[in-house]
Automatic annotation (TrEMBL):
This is Uncharacterized protein. It comes from Salipiger mucosus DSM 16094. It comes from the Bacteria.
Length: 125
């Protein structure tokens, strides 16, 4: 289990920002690894944030991550091997259609399951 927690503070001008807080004030700076589709993200900044046991993190969204589709960034505690936080960038015309299509499919499946469950209840009740 990670000794750190990460909370998003804002996402602005292509930079995701957050605050890392350690369980103990005397904890060493965290080893953070940010990945996008399995590749490391460059330019990540982790800096002391005033009080002991607190660090600010800045994750730049690389140009290659901006395009049609969905991209998910993983922010990991490299030492503990745990994901502290994720964020997603969705862009392009196709992304909106994909999401709407997925929601429509989920609704149809839910309606089918409700009918099957009701039928089951009538047959066994």
């Amino acid at each position: 289990m990670s000794a750190y927690t990460l909370t998003k503070t804002r996402f602005r001008e292509g930079t995701w920002e957050g605050l890392i807080v350690a369980e103990r004030d005397d904890a060493p700076p965290p080893e953070i690894a940010v990945t996008l589709e399995g590749a490391p993200v460059r330019g990540v900044i982790v800096a002391q944030a005033g009080a002991a046991g607190r660090w600010a993190i800045e994750v730049p969204v690389p140009v290659e991550a901006v395009g049609d589709g969905v991209r998910t960034f993983l922010i990991n505690d490299a030492e503990a091997g745990e994901t502290l936080e994720t964020f997603t960038v969705i862009a392009g015309e196709a992304a909106g259609d994909d999401i709407r299509a997925e929601v429509d499919l989920l609704r149809a499946e839910l309606d089918m399951l409700k009918r099957a469950f009701r039928r089951h209840c009538l047959e066994t009740g």
